[in-house]
Amino acid sequence: MNKKEPLFHIVKRDVLPWYKSWGIRAAAIVAALVVCGIITTITTGLNPFKVYGSFIQGAFGSGRKVWITMQNMSILLIISLALTPAFKMRFWNIGGEGQVLVGALATAACMITLGDKIPNALLILIMTVSAILAGSIWGLIPAIFKAKWNTNETLSTLMMNYIATQLVAFFTIVWEVPKGSFTVGIINQSTNAGWLPQLFGSKYLLPIVIALLTTISMFVYLKYSKHGYEISVVGESEKTAKYVGMKTEKIIIRTMLLSGGLCGLAGLLLVGGINHTITTTINSGQGFTAVMVSWLAKFNPITMIFTSFLIIFLERGAGEISTNFGLNQSFADILTGIILFFIIGCEFFISYRIVGRKKGDK
Amino acid sequence: MKKLLSVFLACLMVLSLAACTAGGKGGNAANGKVKVGFIFLHDENSTYDLNFINAAKEACEKAGVEYVLKTNIPEGQECYEAACELADSGCNIVFADSFGHEDYLIEAAKEYKNVEFCHATGTKAHTENLPNYHNAFASIYEGRYLAGVAAGMKLNEMIANGEITPEQAKIGYVGAYTYAEVISGYTSFFLGARSECPTATMEVTFTGSWYDETAEKEGAVKLINNGCVLISQHADSMGAPTACENNNIPDVSYNGSTESVAPNTFIISSRINWVPYFSLCIDSVKNGNKIPTDYTGTIETGSVVLTDLGKIAPAEGTAAKLEEVKKEIQSGQRKIFDTSTFTVGGAPVTSYMADVDTDPAYEGDHEVISNGAFNESSDGFRSAPYFDLRIDGITLLDESY
Predict the structure, then answer these.
(1) What is the rounded distance in angstroms from the CA atom of residue B401 to the CA atom of residue B388?
(2) What residues in A contact B388, CB-CB < 8 Å?
(3) Which residues contact A192 (CB under 8 A, 6 or more apart)?
(4) Which residues contact A242 (CB under 8 A, 6 or more apart)?
């Protein structure tokens, strides 16, 4: 052979059996932990095992911590599930943040304006309807533009986020107490009007139950319903969908109504169930984190339980590290970044393999 | 693979169980051991939080008590969770540093009755009637006034050197929100400056954030372009001092010295020293005494302090003048909000109902003018500032926040 073969080349793999692909993922996590350990020791001189211990303690260190971890995971999971049908349809909805925020805003508006004026059960019903409606509308607007005029939904959903943030900022100033503080404070703190009920006396259980129900429903919806099938056909090829007589416009709009509505539901839980206030940062960027959660899970609702757990576990652990070792939060963020880098990077090795130059070929 | 997973899960559970046994359900100091938990909105990159963090470490190390610092806790349910986690881990004092933490700290205080919850800048302790919930602030308007005196002397020096005419003695101020704490701060600063330089005027711009480096820098640049010849701030980043250094404009900062980023333009900074309050709380819990519902630190308690003067920018004789004015304030001879030194809408203020009790109506509920002065952060009212008059001589460029 005259032409020299490159040192290595990349070959697409056949579909790996599940245990091999999970083996690669496990290897990636181990590799990530080793790299994190080396970086920790070099930069801070701390024992990396103690740091890892803190990670686990941050997520599970006490009964309360376990509950908080599960609660945060539930909210992230709901938002990730919300984005998933749109993603499966190849509709890049990165407007989750805004859709959650308007849902949150609608909830807060009901609690502030209707609190104590109507029976609590009715108030909660109105809150739920308006939160879901608000989220849906926020999803509907880019969907209509996409369906009718084929605008770029990545841009339009992203821009809708900023509109939502500014709307919340505006209403924060309208509702702030005291004047000029830019703080709404806990809404109906003395009467608890519009606070979502506690299940079995637990503050944390409601979002967890709703997240579980949503996961199962979304799994069934995507896998076994006609809608789910239509979504995946549109996702594979819009032309094919049109050819076989599907009304793609209708499917896009319907799916985004669902996507936005579920985000609105997350907003309802954030305001009515957890924070009982409204701020522009109430969702703390989870609309974007959810994009990663959904992708990492390859749009499978059941796998999403694990990916959302992973993200929240890292986040809770990161906070604990900065508290326990007096390190800046940024250090924990660096560790989280390394771990995510390895986990996302390993997907490459699941789809492709690297073949070295064979010795005999020289 | 399954085996591996189960081993991993087993390890996880053992570790978490071990961690579970660590904390009890918040204890009182009966055993004489005090542990303090601190909740901060940001981390040490914010001058505001850094000021608290330094004081927390100093007070706890001085008293020899254990402490835990939690940084980057947002003003939401996270604050409640953080407070509960601290109480769970055995803290008998939990402190939070940001205004928006208040409601969540109150929720935690209702739940952990034998843990003391202390909150800086809050307004609700005097109406909430919770024996274990307390507010604290300081008469920082006195410190602002003194910093203003240093600014006024700088303006006088610039006039004397022919750099500006007396009419051009315009101060610029970068504020966060149109909040009473900010209004009280810039007004006392301005009154201090005008006590030295009678022709001084001031323009204020608001950023709509307590910490936004870009907005603060842009705000300062806008003021400088408007013809302001000296800048001060009530926002927590290095934005304004950096803009001043770049444009060679003298700067009076807040929360601590900014000389490191602005060596040529830094005059002085006032700040609240939280060590006396933290020490008081620790001692009270140690000795079984009550922590005051509303604590206002003063110059006497060592809570209101000025940093060292800058090496280059301050006018000559500033140190001596500050000593003199400080003595006058301490003796009560000089009152900061003396109603004879300012007017509102062209007329002196003889009566004012301030919004001391926090409620959504924003209505005035306490008469705060007496003995010819506005009584800021006084006994019987509350520790957090409530001065929100718009006095003549100060122009607000925008009020959207």
Answers:
(1) 14
(2) 179-180
(3) none
(4) A248
More confident residue, B154 or B22: B154
- Res A360: pLDDT: 56
Q: Considering just the CA atoms, what is the radius of gyration of chain A in Å?
A: 23
Nearest to A183 among B81, B100, B401 (CB): B100
Q: Which residues in chain B are closer than 8 Å to A313, comparing Cβ atoms? A: none
CATH number of B26-139+275-297: 3.40.50.2300
- Residue A3's pLDDT is what? 64
Contact call for B20 and A322, based on CB within 8 A: no
Q: What number of C-beta contacts closer than 8 Å exist between A and B?
A: 116
- Each domain of chain B, given as residue ranges in start order, spans 26-139+275-297, 140-274+301-396
State whether residue B61 sits within 8 Å of chain A by CB: no
Q: Does B1 touch chain A (CB under 8 A)?
A: yes
Please check whether residue A285 touches B, CB under 8 A: no
What does the pLDDT read at residue B12?
A: 47
* pLDDT more than 70, % of chain A: 98
B178 at the A interface (CB within 8 A)? yes
Cβ-contact A175, A107 below 8 angstroms = no
What DSSP element (H or E) covers B68? strand B66-70
| A316 in reach of chain B (CB within 8 A) | no
**Identical fold between B26-139+275-297 and B140-274+301-396:** yes
Whether residue A119 has a cis bond before it, omega within 30° of 0:
no
The token duo for B253 is 């900062």
Q: Which residues of B364-400 are buried (b: 16+ CB within 10 A; e: fewer)?
A: eebebbeeebbbbbbeebbbbbbbbbebebbebeeee
How is chain A split into domains, by residue range? Answer: 75-312
User: Chain B: nearest CA to A77, how far in angstroms?
Assistant: 18
* CA end-to-end distance (rounded Å), chain A: 7
Q: Where does the pLDDT of residue B318 fall: very low under 50, low under 70, confident under 90, or very high at 90 and above?
A: very high
CA distances from B21 to A33, A71, A178, B29, B44 (A): 27, 22, 42, 20, 31
**CATH code linked to domain B140-274+301-396:** 3.40.50.2300
User: Taking Cα atoms as reference points, which of B202, B193, B195, B185 lies closest to residue B141?
Assistant: B185
Q: In A, which residues are within 8 Å of B358 by CB distance?
A: 177-178
Extended strands (E) in B97-191: 116-120, 133-138, 170-175
CA B247 to chain centre: 27
Interface of B with A in 98-127 (CB under 8 A): 99-100, 102-104, 106-107, 123
Per residue in A18-43, pLDDT (tens digit) is 888 888 888 998 999 899 889 988 88
**B320 lies within 8 A of chain A by CB:** no
Give the residue from B265, B221, B263 showing the smallest Cα distance to B239. Answer: B221
Which residues are CB-contacts of B360 (< 8 A; sequence separation ≥ 6)? A175, A177
